[in-house]
Amino acid sequence: MPESATKLPSKILELMDGFRASKALFVASKLKMFDHLKNKGPLKAVDIANEVGTSVCGTERLLDACAALGLLEKTPQGYSNTDSTNTYLTSDGEYSLHGYIIHSNDHLWPLFTFLESAVKEGSRQNHRAFGKKAEDLFKDYYHSQEVKQRFMAAMHSIAHLTARGVATAFDLSRFKSACDLGGCTGALAHELVKIYPNLSVTVFDLPEVIANTSYFQPSAEHTAPVTFVSGDFFKDNLPEADLYILSRVLHDWPDEKIHVLLSKISAVCKPGCEILLAEMVLDDEKKKRRTALLQSLNMLVQTEGKERSGSEYRTLLEQHGFTNVKIRVTGNLLDVILCIKT
Ligand code: SAM
Question: Which interval of the chain is the signal sequence (predicted)?
């Protein structure tokens, strides 16, 4: 027996269990257990089971697992949310991740069960997970109102959480107008107009998305208006702007489609106009950034795209006349790239 075998391989054991912990989080979120616990002080498993309509024995085991995972506090009086659970896991918190968790449970989990096929075939697995083969992933998402709403809520929760970091990674105060291509619910756009009051922002997205954005808007007194325009960024005319934003858009597509989109932006961009990308940027050797590398697997199971390194983004941008490519690795979920049309 090698000497290393006398010590338990804790990292491997933790990875083997990783899916159990994820699923415990997903199920407690889906059953809105954290919502029931919010502001109610400690509750016993039987009270939560009665409120949610679940078995007492199953609920108790799930709550104990959540407490052991650090999501709940357990005392003799019962279970309560931690501060972080109140902020991120209840469905109505300002920075709630509930939308993304439900998307992970209902959409990404079934797709990841076909990771093996995705790796063997090198392509997305929507048809295996959901029995449909649409032209692209957004046709899959937008075929039903329920799936569309779930996807938009997921995008909104991450975009809202990361918006400030993206908006302030570079000083954007010199711009008067920006167009957020694929800007979805407008979460980043609203943060931009809050930080840069002289900036007007247009969100450009597919008609199915634009028709659904009202649900996600902040109340009018808290923010300057954002304009929403519907269209297809591969086919339609793009709005004029000094700054084009692509947040979590390029990672959805293969290089060929990125060339179509960047050449359209380049054609409408005047010299001096800039592009801002927000993506998880891989290190050049593709070995350090674990979250981004796992996100690239997430892209494999559901899109034609992938996560890319800073050099790969630079090469794509420079081919369309965008230079002075600056990359800010933020250490948060999204890194930011800025470049100028010369
Ligand atoms: N930018 C948002 C964010 O960071 O949360 C949303 C990112 S989401 C992964 C990609 C967005 O691109 C979706 O809102 C989708 O509807 C939009 N999109 C996809 N294809 C598009 C197209 N052909 N024209 C316009 N928007 C498109």
Answer: none
Ranges in the chain annotated CATH 1.10.10.10: 3-95
Q: What is the pLDDT of residue 137?
A: 86
Q: According to CATH, what is the number of the domain 99-341?
A: 3.40.50.150
CA distance 321 to 34: 50
Distance 82 CA to ligand 1 centre (A): 34
Beta strands 72-75 and 200-205 are unpaired
Mean pLDDT of 246-257: 98
Return residue ranges of the chain for CATH 3.40.50.150. Answer: 99-341
Question: Which of 2-6, 136-140, 331-335 is most confident?
Answer: 331-335
**Rounded Cα distance, 122 and 300, in Å:** 7
CB 178 within 8 A of CB 156: no
Rounded to whole angstroms, how far apart are CA atoms 140 and 154? 15
Q: What is the CATH number of domain 3-95?
A: 1.10.10.10
> Ligand 1 center to residue 69 CA distance, Å?
34
Confidence of residue 140 (pLDDT cuts 50, 70, 90): confident
Say if the ipTM goes beyond 0.95: yes
Does residue 207 line the site of ligand 1, with CB under 6 A? no
H or E element at residue 15: helix 10-30
Q: Is 0.90 surpassed by the pTM of this model?
A: yes
What residue's CA is closest to ligand 1, atom 23? Answer: 232
**Would the CB of 205 count as within 6 Å of ligand 1?**
yes
The catalytic site residues sit at: 251
